Amino acid sequence: MSCGSVMTRVVPVNKVEPKESAIKISNLRKVFERKGEEIEAIKGIDLDIKEGEFVSVVGPSGCGKSTFLHIVGGFIERTSGVVSVQGEEVGKPAPDRGMMFQESTLFPWRKVYDNVAWGLEAQKFPKADIKERVEYFLKLVGLWEFKDNLPSELSGGMKQRVSLARVLAFDPKVLLMDEPFGALDSQTRETMQVELQRIWSESKKSVIFVTHDIEEAVYLSDYVVVLTKRPSVVKEILKIELPRPREVSIRKSYDFIDYRNHIWDLLHEEENVKSIGGQSNAE
Amino acid sequence: MLSSFKKSRFIVISLVELLLFLSLWQLLSMTDWFPTYVSSPAVVLGIISEFFMTGEVFPHIGISLYRSIVGFLLVVLFGTGLGILAGFFQPIGRFFDPVVSFFNPIPKIALLPVFLVWFGVTDMTRILIIFTSAFFPCFIATLDGVRGINKLYLWSAENMGASKFKMLYRVVLPAALPKIFDGWRVALALTFVMMFSSEMIGSSTGKGLGFMILNADAYGRTDIVLAAVIVIAALGFLFDRLLIGLRGRVLWWQNR
Lengths: 283, 256
Ligand SMILES: Nc1ncnc2c1ncn2[C@@H]1O[C@H](COP(=O)(O)OP(=O)(O)O)[C@@H](O)[C@H]1O
Ligand SMILES: [Mg+2]
Hints:
Chain A is α/β, with parallel strands linked by helices. Chain A has helices at 65-73, 112-122, 127-140, 156-169, 186-203, 214-220, 254-272; strands at 21-34, 37-50, 54-58, 80-85, 88-89, 97-100, 174-178, 206-210, 223-227, 232-239. In chain A, strand 1 (21-34) and strand 2 form a beta hairpin. Chain A is globular and about 50 Å long. In chain B, helix 2 packs across helix 10 (222-250), helix 6 (123-147) runs antiparallel to helix 8 and helix 8 (164-199) runs antiparallel to helix 10. Chains A and B meet through strand 6 and helix 2 of A and helix 7 and helix 8 of B. Bound molecules: adenosine-5'-diphosphate and magnesium ion.
């Protein structure tokens, strides 16, 4: 991945280069059509994400972050450009790209256990394997004792943890996460971030993580991609050279704060840019 | 599941309403506001108990239920099945949209002469009338239910590697079931309405509750007509409650 960081400090990173490309995106463009009117959501995004990298995407709201993930996931079509995962061009949605949506998509008619088992059943995992995996991942997110509850009986944070277990259970090569912790209180959110970092470092999956929380992006990521407002292009890509594993207290370090402030500046620059032709950035 | 409190509350309310209804009726029958006399509930209830004591009503109930239930099951099968397909596969839905707008407003009883020419005075004709009447409410409710499913459920299912078939019966069906049950309930009521109407056309076997009413009416016996109407109403009530019970069981996750 190319790096546009303005950081000059050299911090050792425990990573071996070069690596294989996990996700490659070039000249991605997306134009929505609504009532004969064209809305250009994404103007041009280029990214090259290597195996095992954790990449966050931040940008003003309505700039096309969800749209971007939906395209990588194969849920909506791109207008032009190329998206490939491990060398293969992306088509329909498939379990190799596990998606966590911005809102809970747990099935309300299935208990927590059966929700996590759903993807495994659909993919015809062996019965014993399903049992083992569901138990393992529900314990991992700390919700094994809620296995017989319905999603409607869980809090927002617990639902997101079940969603995480559900997507991890079928072992996708790539994780796509759309503001997964957006609705959580700061305490739960921090716990989830620590958990996610641990899970990710053990599984070494490639992750694209969309968030509007700058600190979350810096804390979790190898790279932070900052998008401009709609129609979005990549404004800057920062390499986050903080040592891993990262303690929660790393947020207090000067390096961390430098990164955070820099991204904050970039985003505020965007917000102050006058929209051309009086277009609003409705979400 | 209904709590036992809700269940017993329902029974108490039903009984109170029934009593109120019977007393009003009794009062009405004691006035002479109507040109011909209104049979008192006591008389009508007497006739109903006679129906059952002599057993003469059972063949009528049997044949009427047979027609209704076959009609209803066909509606459930085709109305729900086609509704799901039309809601899920857009081209099928686009094909059905004008068909529904065209056929739905037609009073299906208007087709009776046509069916009579094709199939004569048979159960086939009656079941067809029941089916064509009750099909659309079921089909439309299912279609709306499927079209209203949060697309993120479908996207998640696709993401988890589900085949189209698995999505149909593991996501689309359960997600649309609440709406589908609404459609079934309307269809069930229509089934009973049309069973009665279709039996008014004379009867090859001379059996059926509608036939009983028709026959009694010919002799001016309003008491027998009312008795038969009440039997139909009681059957309708029974099946409506059965359907609601089934709904509570199937949609257990909604009211836990
Ligand atoms: N299905 C759609 N049809 C038309 N416009 C859409 C559609 N989905 C998203 N958009 C528009 O595209 C832009 C980007 O949306 P989105 O990707 O949801 O933004 P973000 O996730 O960054 O907040 C918004 O202006 C939004 O209104
Ligand atoms: Mg979004």
